[in-house]
Design goal:
314 residues, Methyltransferase, Methionine Synthase (B12-binding Domains), Chain A, domain 1, alpha/beta, globular, 8 strands, Rossmann fold, Multidrug-efflux Transporter Regulator, Chain: A, Domain 2
């Protein structure tokens, strides 16, 4: 049995479901049975998060939650794999998109169809409807989570994940370039450590940091610790952000993280997050890095760091 340690808020962020929907699916349909603490707080396992994710995808494809809530996970995955989300009614009565969830599902359908033009059009519409922060936090981050889970489940292929990464890299890179940043704004280096080949999380972090007023330097995927540190020193960066997505059992990564801390100036902060980051939690804590589990938290930490290092008036 997998360990249950996720709060309902964390589950909401990871699955794209509201707190209300999670509770209703649990109480009314028995979709999951979270463990309860002594204070009656719900705690969910990775398996339950995966199940809720596929239930959301199945209902997004038009299936009634009452009909799918009790299906085995293998049946749910087959159901989602055969579903065509592009066939849903994606519009509200006035012709506008109805919610961030609908944007998410429409983007997902475009990715599954490898429809580059359709994907870009959906992102543009979501940007207009939700704004920069809404697009990033309510559509892009949950979409990356969904594609990652579908890839691990074998529902989509590596080609779909690379398609998503390439499309978002271009789109979010253009958005990041639109923000006017003051000359004295703090600087941050963004990369994935050596052996971490999935760069989608780093692309999202790059856009998030730019939106909250930081000078961002995006280095890409799988860079040795010394090169990341060298870029940070050269740019006089206040922080380094690392995306750790896959794999979760790289025996060399802890050494890379320790080396990065050793190469960097003591005052340079390290942020570490991503789907596989919890697997390296002990090393992240050992090097004094800040562990990040959401875009919201990352932006808040950047704001706190910026305030704490701002020169005080004489």
């Amino acid at each position: 049995m997998t360990k249950a340690h996720y709060s309902i808020k964390a589950v909401s962020r990871r699955t794209g479901l509201s707190l209300h929907v999670i509770r209703i699916w649990e109480k009314r349909y028995g979709a999951v049975e979270p463990r309860r603490t002594a204070t009656n707080r719900r705690l969910y396992s990775d398996a339950e998060i995966e199940r809720l994710t596929f239930l959301r995808l199945a209902t997004a494809a038009g299936h009634s939650i009452g009909n799918v809530a009790k299906l085995p996970l293998t049946r749910l995955k087959l159901l989602v794999a055969k579903s065509d989300l592009s066939g849903r009614d994606r519009h509200s009565e006035n012709g506008a998109f109805s919610s961030a969830q609908t944007f998410h599902d429409s983007c997902l359908a475009a990715v599954r169809g490898l429809d580059a033009r359709g994907f870009e059009e959906m992102l543009q519409k979501a940007l207009v409807a939700l704004g920069h922060q809404g697009l990033l936090r309510q559509v892009v981050a949950p979409l990356a989570q969904t594609i990652g889970e579908l890839w691990r489940a074998g529902v989509v292929t590596a080609a779909h994940e690379h398609f998503l990464s390439a499309g978002l890299k271009v789109f979010l890179g253009q958005l990041a370039g639109q923000f006017a940043v003051s000359a004295n704004a703090p600087r941050i280096i963004i990369a994935t450590p050596a052996g971490q080949l999935h760069e989608l999380g780093a692309v999202i972090v790059h856009a998030a940091a730019a939106q909250v007023g930081w000078h961002t330097t995006y280095l890409g995927a799988s860079l040795p610790a010394a090169e990341i540190a060298g870029a940070a020193v050269q740019n006089r960066a206040l922080a380094v952000a690392l995306s750790i997505v896959y794999p979760e059992d790289d025996p060399h990564l802890p050494q890379e993280l320790v080396g990065l801390r050793r190469f960097l100036p003591p005052e340079t902060k390290i942020f570490a997050g991503g789907r596989a980051a919890p697997a390296y939690f002990e090393t992240v804590m050992q090097i004094g890095a800040l562990f990040i589990d959401s875009i919201d938290e990352f932006c808040n930490q950047l704001d706190d760091l910026r305030r704490s290092t701002k020169p005080k008036p004489a």
